[in-house]
Amino acid sequence: MKPKFKMIQTLSIMSAGLLFSTGAFANELVNGDFELNPPTSGFGNHIGYPITPWVIGAGSPTNIIRTDQGNSSTGQGPRKDASGTASGTIRHYLDITNGGNELYQTFKAKCTGKAVFGGYFSTRQNRNATGSITLRNGIGVTGSIIGQSNPVVLPGGNSTTDPWKFVNYSSPVVAGNVYSLVITMDNNINFDEAFVEIKGCDGVVDPSNPGPFDPGPPPIKPGDNVISTPVYPRIKSEPLSKSSPMKAVPMKRR
Questions:
Q1: Where are the alpha helices (DSSP H) in 55-190?
Q2: Which whole-number Å values give the CA distances from 165 to 60, 129, 143, 210, in the listed order?
Q3: What does each of the 254 residues of the chain score in pLDDT, given as a tens digit?
Q4: To the nearest 5 percent, what fractions of the chain are helix, strand and coil?
Q5: Are 81 and 66 in contact (CB under 8 A)?
Q6: 229 in any annotated domain
Q7: Which domain holds residue 93?
Q8: 206: CATH
Q9: Which pTM value belongs to this model?
């Protein structure tokens, strides 16, 4: 029995690694990476370019930055987006033009559990930058806050080459309820790779803690400094072998 136990244990560890590395928890957002119908020519600024299905506030217009991951100039912001893809790959990220604004995207919780949400921020023009990321009840930017508002403050540096800052937070959600992920941005901040992942819908549990278990944010990208916790999948009990059948115990009639 000991060799069999070791084999099961090894398979469990392999399954945990596969579950984490393949992103088993689906992103509830659409176009969180701003790669849905992006601009197809010219590097740098594309002012006023739509970012459907994100909804934009009444502030300054959006600006989609088109990059080739380091080879071409993108103006006063990063020459790479936050995806960590290879040099030469065409990618995009979000800026706000000559001012600040807020944007949101709405989703419905598919189960009761924990919503882990976040994204990547960076600076422009080598200046200090501020933003925030918040989960709210209902549709729009005025619903009650779930948990707390999470400010993002970045110091000025070298905006073209400084690494993107990864942030992630969590708040409880209830199945069937509608929520909005709200992002605020000032003139000197960029945003990319937004996500909302709901833990608790998959049956994955931590053996030391009954109930939903959070395996952490999406797969780590180059430059991130994040410590993640492994996932422990539920191990099903094995049926009794034919060599060891259960014996019926006769019962005396009273």
A1: none
A2: 23, 12, 27, 32
A3: 444 434 433 333 333 333 333 345 689 999 999 999 999 999 999 999 999 999 999 999 999 999 999 999 898 999 999 999 999 999 999 999 999 999 999 999 999 999 999 999 999 999 999 999 999 999 999 999 999 999 999 999 999 999 999 999 999 999 999 999 999 999 999 999 999 999 987 655 433 334 443 444 555 666 655 534 344 444 444 444 444 444 444 555 44
A4: 10, 35, 60
A5: no
A6: no
A7: 25-212
A8: 2.60.120.260
A9: 0.73
For 178, the token pair is 């509608």
Residue 167 counted as domain residue:
yes
Beta strands 129-137 and 178-185, pairing class: antiparallel
Structure tokens belonging to residue 7: 């084999």
- What is the chain's length? 254
Place of tokens 């909005």: 180
